[in-house]
Amino acid sequence: MKNKWIRIILAFGLVYAFSCEKDLLTHADYADYIFASLDEKGGSWKPILLTGGNQISIPTPKDVTSDDYKNELAALKTAMANLTSDQKKAVEYWTNNPVLRWNEIALELAAKYNIIPQPNADGTYTLPDPANPSKYPQFPFAHPPYTSRALAYLSVAQFDGLISAWHYKYTFNRKAPSDVDNSIVPAYAKTSLPAYPADGAVVATASRDILTAMFPLEKDYLAAKATEHMSSLTWAGVNVKSDIDAGATIGVEVAKVAMARARTDGMSKAQAPRPVSDSIKAAALKRFGWQWDNQETPVRPVGLAPLFGKVKMWNVPNVEIVRPGPPPAPGSAEFNTAAKELQDIAKKITPEQRKIANWWSDGLGTYTPPGHWNRYVKDLLIEYKFNPLRSARTFAYLNMAVMDAGVSCWDAKYYYHYPRPIQTIPGFKTILGTPNFPAYTSGHSTFSAAAAEVVAYVFPNEAQKARNWANEAAESRILGGIHYRFDAEVGITQGKNVAQYSLNRAKQDGAE
After folding, report:
1. What is the largest distance, in Å, between two alpha-carbon atoms of the chain?
2. DSSP letter assigned to residue 99
């Protein structure tokens, strides 16, 4: 049974699904589209952080027959009549579902900042400092836990903000400019979605503020993108200024709520100092008789984010209830079987197996496994023509489940402190770099299994494909020599278990 997953993967042809791609893809080539549904009742859905769609207040809009509105409409028509080529490109770029574009921007930043600090000349290491982000090494180091958290806060803020937008859209029912003045031809597919407040402005300001907090050195870049995005709503003929101002208010306020949670979720303590790290290692040695040790030269004295397993989860009440049982002891029969499998693979790895390992490696300079799944889901949102609200909902549950899976995985990693294959198998070498944290359980497996369960829930027709890809991601770490099979198999089960908590919440939010 040990080769069960690889046979499934080959049977479904997944080896070739993406492995021919050489570049890191973030930008989707899509245009505006007609939404499959407007989700008119979306304003009554249950948010994640807000108490309801009406928690954030915005002014009652002026009637479309008022002089104030007529002046705004005239300004919109003037702007549309004098567009530059750059403004036209901006309209084309942002489309009528900008949730996808801001997700792409987040992935680009995750890849840009996924750079591990290098050793100093004296063999010591300096960590990124959030209080001085421009000092080398720059803050943040967007490793998988960091990226999963950034994506979760981004998506939750977008989702809650759009629930609020939908609430007010259908409360006030102010028509779109093109429905008030039929001489206006909007750049995007025309719908009956009310214009006030502008959902694009909600997404722009919420995304700007969340990503600025996560990537502080990108403040000016993000501000410029948000300004362009909000301006494009007028250039496209879909929103007047008061629509945009009201949407911006919602976005700013929902980002404040999200970041208030972020400041107290425990992430600031995740990269523990050496004395704390050493005490965690000593506890595992006393408890189990083994410990993981960094194998680099010079040795990194502290693993990656030893206390990420203590960070507040979104939907799991206590990390210990999803903690898996212990791995087999080094030297046991089960361990020896797993070790021999790795040695056998290393001796005769095929080109197809190497492609799998490389495709899913998601290492330094990439948007990490959480980003990999966001990119895949983005393509599905386009294919199934989801509107911005339902897109944000999908990303929110995806990224909450993925972050919770990461917290659970890191809890297991540092609770069990299990050594990597290169530490326990004499002379063993991997075809990929070995991460700076313990082996059990596999992060790729846990992240991917959780993501696949959300995909299966939102897109039932894609369930088998998504679960096959999660299995491929898990298998890739075995093929790369990074993990034992039990790391991967238990990680898959762990990720599935964690995802159920997010899915249970999703099933009760009113969107079904």
Report:
1. 82
2. H
Q: Give the side-chain half-sphere CA count within 13 A for 337.
A: 9
So what's the pLDDT on residue 11? Answer: 33
Residue 51 buriedness (CB in 10 A; 0-12 / 13-18 / 19+): exposed
The 8-class DSSP code of residue 125 comes to -
468 neighbors 6 (Cβ within 8 angstroms): no
Residue 269 CA: distances (Å) to CA of 170, 193, 265, 392, 446: 43, 44, 9, 29, 22
Residue 206 token pair: 């919420």
User: 362: alpha, beta or left, given left = phi > 0 and alpha = psi -120 to 50?
Assistant: left
Q: Residue 81, SS3?
A: helix
Alpha-helix runs per DSSP H in 144-240: 144-172, 177-180, 199-214, 219-235
CA distance 163 to 47: 7
Contact at 8 Å (CB) between 438 and 294?
no
Backbone angles phi, psi at 432, to 5 degrees: -130, 165
CB atoms within 10 A of CB 512: 8
Tokens of 53: 């769609």
Structure tokens at 1: 């049974």
Q: What does the pLDDT read at residue 330?
A: 97
pTM above 0.85, yes or no: yes
Q: Which of 510, 405, 500, 426 is nearest to 457 (CA)?
A: 500
Nearest to 161 by CA among 204, 118, 222, 120: 204
pLDDT tens digits, residue range 386-422? 999 999 999 999 999 999 999 999 999 999 999 999 9
Rounded Cα distance between 512 and 506, Å, is 9
Model confidence pLDDT, tens digit, residues 7-58: 333 333 333 333 333 367 778 889 999 999 999 999 999 999 999 999 999 9
DSSP per-residue string spanning 230-289: HHHHHHTTS--HHHHHHHHHHHHHHHHHHHHHHTTSSGGGSS--HHHHHHHHHHHHHHHS
Per residue in 437-458, pLDDT tens?
999 999 999 999 999 999 999 9
C-alpha angle with apex 439: 437 to 444, nearest 5 degrees?
90
330/423 Cα distance (integer angstroms)? 11
